[in-house]
## 1
Amino acid sequence: MQEFDFDEIVDRRGTDCLKWDGAGADGVLPMWVADMDFRTAPCVVEALRRRVDHGVFGYEHVPDSYYEAVAGWFGRRHGWRPQREWMIYTSGVVPAVSAVIKAMTAPGDKVLVQTPVYNCFFSSIRNNGCVVEDSKLVYAGGTYTVDFDDFERRAADPRVKVFLLCNPHNPAGRVWTETELRRMGDICMRHGVFVIADEIHCDIVMPGYKYTPFASLSDEFLAHSATCTAPTKTFNIAGTQIANIFAADEGVRSRIDRAININEVCDVSPFGVTALQAAYNEGAEWLDALLAYLHGNYECLVSFFAERLPQIPVTKLEGTYLVWLDCAALGRTAETIVDELLQREKLWLNGGGMYGEHDRAFVRMNIACPRPVLERGMRLFADYVEWALNGRSA
C-alpha cells in the first residue's frame, strides 16, 4: 500500500492562492474557505504533468473515457452508476446549481433551503430572480435534524418550485440517512417540488456514516431531481474547474442544457477533464488515506476542545472537513467573534451569519490541513476564547 504524507507543510503563499494569498502577508492563518492544504493525489499530479508536457491547450473535446470514469467511480464507491446520457459537464458545482435553478424556475418563484447552509445557495437563488424559502434545521444535542412539519408546510406553498438539498450538509456536518432523504423526497414529490441535490462533499464521510445519492432512492426521485457533483472537494482540485450534473429525465436535461448555455458555462478546461479521470480512475487509495487522516484531525480537535474549551461544543461531524463550533457561551455575535479572532490572533474563520444562522453564534473551521497547522489554529482559538471569557466587553 502506498504511503501518503499528509503531515507535509506545503507553502501555498505566492501561488495566487485565494486561501493564503488572500489573507495577506501578515501571518494570518486561514482556516475558512473549503479547500485543503494537502497536495492532491500523485496520480492526478502525474496526469496533469503529462498534459502540460504536450504544450497545446486548446478547446477541449470531452471523451468517452470521461463519462466512464464518472460512472465507474460512483458505481464502485457508492453503489449507484449514473448513465452517460444523464450527464452534463460544466465548470463548477455553483454554476451547475445556478443553471438548474434557472432551468426549473421562473423569476419570483421560491426555492426551499435548510439553514444553516452553504452561502452560495443564497446568491444562486437571488441571481435567478427567485426568493429564498427557509426551513431551519433543528440544533440540539450537538447535531442538526430536520423539522419535517415545517419542511412540509413550506414545501406545500405553491410558489415553492425547487428544494435545494445539501447532501452531505455544509456547514451542519450531517450525512443525511436514507430514511431522512426518503422523507424529504416524499414531501417534495407530494407537492410537486423539484429537488436539486448538491452532493459535492459526497466522498468526504467520517467512519460509521454512509452517503446515499438522493437520486438512487427511487425512480420518482431520479426523474424529479438533478444531482450536482464534482471531484474538486474530494481531491483538492477546485482550480481545475470541473463538475457534472446528473439529470435522468430527458425534458429536464434539455432545459438544464439550455440554461448551461445561457449562463455560458458549457466549456471546460482540459486540465479539469484530465484531473477528473485520473482522480476517479486511480485515486481511491489516496482518498482512503485522506479520510483516515481527516478523521484523526477531527478526533484531535474534539479531544482538545473537551480538555481546554469545554464551553465551546463541537457539532458532530459526519461528513465534510468543516467543523461547526457553538460559540454561544462567548456572548458575542459570530461576526464579532470572527473579527476579533482575525485582529487579535490572526486566525481567519467563517461566521455563521453567512450561512443563514442568526439565532446562535457559530463559526466554521476547516480542519483539512496538516495536523501541526490544525494544532496551531486550535491554540490560537483557545487563546481567544480565554481572553473573551475574562470579562472583556464584546
## 2
Amino acid sequence: MDRLEIFTRYRSLLFAIAYRMLGSATDAEDMLQEAWIRWQLTQAIVQSPKAFLSSLVTRLCIDRLRSARVQREKYVGVWLPEPLIAESNKDFEDNAELSESLSFAFLMLLECLSPTERAIFLLREVFDYDYADIAKTVGKSIPNCRQIVRRARQHLIVRRPSCNLSLQQKEEIIQQFLNSWNQGDVHSLISLMAEDVILWSDGGGQAIASQKPLHGCDKIARFLVAIRRSKVLPKIIPKIVQINDCLGILNTFEGKPQSTFSFEFSGDRIQSIFAVVNPDKLKQQIK
C-alpha cells in the first residue's frame, strides 16, 4: 500500500479529529493538507501509520488552536463552530459517542479546555486511544494525561444539562419551533424553551447578529420573531436538516445557506440555540 492509499484510508478519522479540535471544517482541511505534505516527506519507517498520522494532525491542531485563541480575542461578537450540514444522517457517523461529540453544545464546552487538554480529552474519550499513545503525542506523562482526562470529564459533566429525549421527541420540538417561528407566535415559542434559555449568534461582523448571548425565553422569542418579520433581512426558507449530526434548521436564501440553528435540550425544553450567520462559515455548504 503506497502513501496515498494509506492517507486516504485514514482521512475520515484525521478529519474527525481535526474538526473536533478546531471547530472548523475549513481549518480541519488545512491541517489535513499540511499533514499530507509532511507524510510524503517522512523518511523514517513508520510502524503504525494510523498512530503516526493521528499524532501529526493532533500536534498541528494544537499549534493552530494556540494561534486561533489570539485571533478569537479580536473576533467580532460570539464565536461558534463552523456547521457541518447534511440532508441525511447517512453523511455522518453512526457511532453514538462520535455523533454526540460533534454537537455544538459539546464543542462549545471544549472551549474551556486548553489546546493540549482538549487533545488529550478527545483522543481518549471520543476516539479511545491508549494513554501511552496520547502521552507520546502531547509530550506529557501517562499519569498526567489520566489526571487531565478525569478533571476535564468532571468539569464538562457539571456544565452539561440533562436530557433524556429521544430523536423523535427532539424532532417534534424542533418542528413545533419551526412552525411557531414561521407563524410569528411568540407565546408558542416561549412554551418550547426553558426559562433560562440562551441564544448564541455568530455573525462574525459580516451579518446581522446579537453581539452578546441573549438570555431568557421571552426576550429570545421576541428577537426571533422580529428577525423573521424584518424587511431588512432576506426572506429565508427554513427546513429541518442534520447539522453536526444533530437535528437543526437550515435557512436558505435563493437556494444558498443564509444561517443555521442548532439546539441543546434540558428536560423537554430547548436550553440553548446556536445560530450561525457568518457567511464565511457557510461557504463550505454552498455547492
